[in-house]
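User: Teach me something about this protein's shape.
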Amino acid sequence: MKTVRYITLIFLQIVVCSCVVNYVPVVNDYEEQLVVEGLITDQPGINTIKLSWSEQIWDRQFPRTLKGCIVSISDNLGNTHELTESASWGTYITDSATFCGVVGREYTLHIKTTKEPQNFSYMSRPTKMLPVPEVDSIYYEKEVFRLSNIPVDGCNIFLDTHDPSNNCKFYRWEYLETWEIGIPFDFPNKRCWLSQKSDVVNIKNASFLPEAKVSRFPVISIQDPDDRLNIKYSILVKQFSLNEEEYNYWAGLKNTMDQTGGLYDIIPATIPNNIYCVEDPNRDVMGYFCVSAVSSKRLFIEDEFSGINDTYLDCYSNTIFTSRPDTLPDVNAGIAWIVVDHSKENPPLVIVTYDMGCIDCRTRGTNIKPDYWDQDK
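Assistant: First, the predicted structure itself:
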């Protein structure tokens, strides 16, 4: 879960300043708090718990990772699984060979800090893994958007789902976008793929709807497609089951994002959590231990979209194909690079570029095609 990966979680109010001179308030009773970021699912693979200490915003940009803790997960059947601290300090992982979440079980997170001079134990409230239905369908609809008063084709992507058993009444969705790009010239690395994870909170309370039915849920609106829709585009949507308490956590996070502008901005301490300090229940803790079943569905888009900007338009003027090597710019000055040097041949040919991205798409993505890329064929 990437929810609070780069967030500086602090115990303060959000202050909006318009002054030229910075004002740093003096807080004498500030107390650092444990920040927990964790998710376990019913999917194969590693589950991750991340621990850090909160910081005052004027002290540090990112929270300090919490190393050397004893972390475990127990269930209501008496099973306990110890987590291992990974090479990324403050990150604790499960063993994919021995642990996988099971729908219907209740899970509790246990944390023992080793911070001197006083150590604390933390626990989450037992959280039941609820079943999640399959995603019924993902689909897109074209729409014309106006960018700088110029019409551009984009699209809106929607999702339908329902739970006839009515067990899953609260939903959350994440998505991963992947799209193909192509440089305009015939060089070895002319085709690449870029991926981008969602950075928004998509949730839905369907508890008041028959069969917890969700129709035309707006997953993403691609209003400035750039080159995302030029060749081929894919989106993988993951659907998570939530209980009402976890839904309230995500709703609080979403409300904060709407006020502060992004998923990775400051999160106030007022957002609810399900973790407490055993020795001192009044000690504040931030974050959430999430327990969810997951289903997923992928959509491919390979269509005609007009008005999209050509990302590589400048490459036609920034890349020089010439048979006159004597007319080339000074490549030794570091402002241009020789791509092809056949100056000794007859006829000579030299290709020079001012932008390596024009002749090698790996400056933006990877030239390794995803293994699922042709699944729509």
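Now, about its shape. Confidence is low (pLDDT under 50) at residues 2-28. The radius of gyration is 26 Å. If you'd like, I can walk through any region in more detail.
User: That's plenty for now, thanks!
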